[in-house]
What we know:
This protein is an alpha+beta fold. The chain has one domain: Beta-grasp domain (Ubiquitin-like (UB roll), Roll). It has helices at about 10-15, 30-50; strands spanning about 1-10, 20-25, 65-70, 70, 85-90. Strand 3 and strand 4 (about 70) form a beta hairpin.
Amino acid sequence: MAKVTVKLFGVLRVDTGLAASEVSADKLGDIFGFVNEEITTIYEERLKDDPSLERPDVISFSDAIVYINGKRCPRKRQKLSDGDEIWLMSPASGG
């Protein structure tokens, strides 16, 4: 398994309270389970201070624009290497 850094940006970071995480995974699609576990832990800690806090949605590959080492990655089966940096960005929206 590769040890990688996952960074969240935009609404994903604000909604989840997670800025970055170290994850061990073989493929890009595998990181989401680990990231969601960490988000759940953060939520449970924050819930102690604010019982009205809404649970963040589960993050999946389709919820994010994904970059690996600064390059856009459209495939969740992308194999990971030690030291890769993965960015998860919320899709842009306008109004």
